[in-house]
């Protein structure tokens, strides 16, 4: 009873004598039988917070995407905001009015922005299948009388008849084709197999269409309706890009998992199925068998925990920003409902449907039974308390659970309300960038257990198949420090360690005291601070793959940079990865040079011809990542190269003549001080209607483009916009008289 009172008082912030540390044993084994590949896509988000979080995937989803019309970038807010159709998605994408008029520009800019993030995360947009999408961007509400079908909506169709695609798409055919959108994206970025869009979500939370989008789908979605729509849209996607992954289901929560939110035909359709998840998987498997190809690659669900804690005697759901002590405790324990048999949170799900908990094993069992080989995604989740240590620990716990339980993709959703999000990025970085220089949790999970799952969690991983580096993430969910005894069973003997972490006093990820390993390198003792998260990196003593003598660089007159390095010897070395940074913190690879594995001295060089001018100053930073054949890696010291800041390339344009005589062709004089590049040219009239849209080539220097189309332009004032591949936007008013 004394310990319980002490813990409660500490949560309430009362002054107490120093409490005894909790003794906990952590057991780690790198044995091959216990290994689990960790998908990098689990470190994903719907709303990127900071580039240095190094996300694995980014999703374009949410209620707005159900009514998104890729042909004109219109969307509808539905119940979220007076059923208004507008250009909101253009606004959130940072598009100008002219850019918003370019077909597909919202989804195109999304993919571009994601691919520009460190590590080029997987871009995962949403396709539409509720039946209709917004026809206009009028910034007005859609009334009940204007419920689809009406002039405020365009029918959305999975497959274009005849399969002949066009860009820009036909805006007058009264249909928006999904396969034509996929074709546009593959034409722009390549197929998934060649670095394009990795996969597509089949709409968003269909069981809620009747409540979030009653002007689109006013009646409850049927159990059969959903899988039939999924079948048709999945087939249309695969016809255009067989290598793209289809994410189906996109169920909003447990009521949809259970019976598609009491689907009107569930009583007849659901006979013999324990829940809708099984039914959906079985139907999609049957459709795939009929089609002779897999139509569903990934089953996707959303998970906003229903767990509650008491605040002043009232149950409060953990997903908000409430940080009263009981809600904090419930939030810290809620991730156990994902994996731990026998654990029961306080929620209506645990009370009435405990047979489906823990959740991840139940979902995986349905997959194994109904459609083996299907991957699992959780594309929306949030545990609340985003600006509190309880939210940070819950987020870190969930990421570890996803990796340990074979989840393929996961995307955090910013449901933090008006509160702070200060603990979310550090929770990601425990796994993706714990030292601020790109060091990350391993790609292969290994067995890790704790003697106290209530107060602690532990996750462990190695890089590939190599045991040379072992990384641990250790969470202390207690208000007392934990005296941890770490027992390591590995083929490697660990000799050195590094550690970083955050705690209740600050969300900043900082260096932590380094554990001292025992003489055999198979264990250590370590104090884990109260309410804290710690990443511990252990490295084994082994023959270095490379003995690096020197690493130098020299700026060249043509703005390139020459890098040279010399080795004394190489042993089982794979390659040298040259990395560049504009600020000395975030490095990205620019080239890879194969190692020679010679026992004698050897010299290497590499010319970085694409070295940019650093917008923050005249210096660029380089380092080598020395790769071993077993997948492990070490880094060289960082070198700095200084050079004058390069001039920023500019593009200017002028219509010739201006005004343009009515009925006459025109010319466009372009001056490009940068390299040869492509650009998109479009013309809108005074009412904002697009008159011309096409891709053009911009050679370096001066060029004159012919615009024979001007001969048919009616008299009036026009806006000519040129958007270059490097993001420059140039506008010119043109008059036809």
From TrEMBL:
Listed Pfam families: Glyco_hydro_44
Domain of life: Bacteria
Residues annotated as signal peptide: 1-20
Keywords linked to the UniProt accession: Signal
Domain Glycoside hydrolase family 44 catalytic: 74-307
Protein name: Glycoside hydrolase family 44 catalytic domain-containing protein
Organism, as annotated: Hymenobacter negativus
């Amino acid at each position: 009873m004394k310990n319980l009172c002490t813990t409660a008082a500490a949560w309430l912030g009362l002054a107490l004598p120093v409490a005894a540390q909790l003794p906990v044993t952590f057991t780690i084994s790198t044995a091959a039988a216990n290994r689990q590949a960790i998908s990098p896509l689990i470190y994903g988000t719907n709303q990127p917070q900071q580039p240095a979080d190094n996300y694995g995937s980014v999703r374009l989803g949410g209620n707005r995407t159900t009514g998104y019309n890729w042909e004109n970038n219109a969307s509808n807010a539905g119940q979220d905001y007076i059923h208004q159709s507008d250009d909101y998605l253009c606004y959130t994408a940072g598009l100008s009015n002219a850019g918003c008029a370019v077909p597909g520009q919202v989804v195109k800019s999304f993919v571009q922005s994601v691919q520009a993030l460190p590590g080029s995360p997987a871009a995962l947009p949403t396709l539409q299948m509720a039946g209709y999408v917004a026809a206009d961007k009028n910034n007005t509400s859609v009334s009940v009388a204007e419920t689809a079908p009406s002039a405020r909506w365009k029918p959305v169709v999975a497959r274009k008849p005849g399969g002949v695609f066009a860009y820009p798409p036909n805006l007058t055919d009264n249909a928006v084709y999904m396969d034509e959108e996929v074709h546009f994206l593959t034409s722009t970025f390549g197929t998934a197999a060649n670095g394009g869009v990795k996969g597509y979500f089949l709409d968003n939370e269909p069981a809620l269409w009747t409540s979030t989008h009653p002007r689109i789908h006013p009646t409850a979605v049927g159990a059969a309706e959903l899988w039939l729509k999924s079948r048709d849209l999945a087939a249309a996607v695969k016809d255009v890009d067989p290598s793209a992954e289809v994410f189906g289901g996109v169920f909003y929560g447990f009521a949809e998992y259970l019976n598609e939110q009491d689907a009107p035909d569930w009583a007849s359709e659901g006979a013999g199925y324990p829940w809708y998840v099984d039914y959906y998987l079985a139907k999609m498997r049957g459709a795939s068998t009929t089609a002779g190809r897999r139509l569903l690659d990934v089953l996707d669900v959303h998970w906003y925990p229903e767990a509650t804690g008491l605040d002043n005697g009232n149950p409060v759901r953990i997903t908000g920003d409430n940080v009263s002590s009981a809600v904090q405790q419930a939030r810290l324990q809620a991730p156990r409902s994902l994996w731990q048999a026998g654990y029961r949170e306080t929620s209506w799900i645990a009370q009435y449907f405990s047979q489906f908990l823990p959740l991840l094993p139940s979902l995986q069992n349905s997959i194994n039974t109904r459609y083996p080989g299907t991957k699992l995604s959780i594309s929306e989740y949030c545990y609340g308390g985003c600006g509190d240590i309880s939210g940070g620990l819950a987020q870190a716990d969930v990421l570890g659970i996803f990796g340990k339980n074979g989840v393929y993709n996961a995307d955090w959703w910013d449901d933090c309300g008006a509160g702070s999000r200060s603990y979310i990025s550090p929770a990601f970085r425990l796994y993706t960038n714990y030292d601020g220089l790109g060091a990350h949790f391993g790609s292969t999970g290994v067995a890790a257990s704790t003697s106290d799952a209530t107060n602690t969690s532990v996750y462990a991983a190695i890089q590939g198949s190599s045991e040379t580096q072992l990384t641990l993430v250790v969470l202390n969910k207690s208000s007392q420090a934990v005296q941890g005894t770490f027992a390591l069973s590995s083929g490697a003997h660990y000799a050195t360690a590094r550690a970083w972490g955050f705690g209740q006093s600050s969300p900043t990820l900082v260096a932590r005291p380094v554990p001292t390993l025992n003489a055999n390198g198979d264990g250590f003792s370590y104090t884990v601070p109260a309410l804290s998260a710690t990443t511990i990196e252990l490295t084994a003593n082994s023959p270095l793959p490379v003995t690096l003598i020197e690493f130098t660089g020299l700026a060249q007159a043509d703005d390139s940079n020459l890098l040279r390095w010399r080795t004394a010897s190489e042993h089982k070395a794979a390659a040298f990865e040259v990395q560049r940074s504009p600020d000395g913190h975030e490095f990205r690879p620019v080239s890879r040079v194969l190692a020679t594995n010679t026992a004698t001295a050897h010299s290497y060089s590499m010319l970085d011809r694409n070295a940019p001018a650093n917008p923050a100053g005249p210096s660029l930073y380089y380092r080598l990542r020395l790769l071993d054949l077993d997948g492990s890696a070490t880094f060289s010291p960082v070198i700095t190269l200084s050079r004058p800041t390069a001039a920023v390339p500019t593009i200017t344009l002028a219509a010739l003549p201006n005004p343009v005589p009515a009925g006459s062709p025109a010319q466009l004089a372009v001056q490009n001080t940068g390299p040869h590049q492509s650009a998109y040219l479009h013309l809108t009239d005074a009412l904002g209607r697009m008159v011309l849209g096409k891709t053009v080539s911009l050679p370096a220097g001066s060029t004159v483009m012919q615009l024979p189309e001007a001969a048919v332009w009616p008299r009036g004032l026009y806006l000519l916009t040129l958007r270059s591949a490097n993001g420059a936007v140039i506008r010119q008013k043109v008059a036809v008289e």
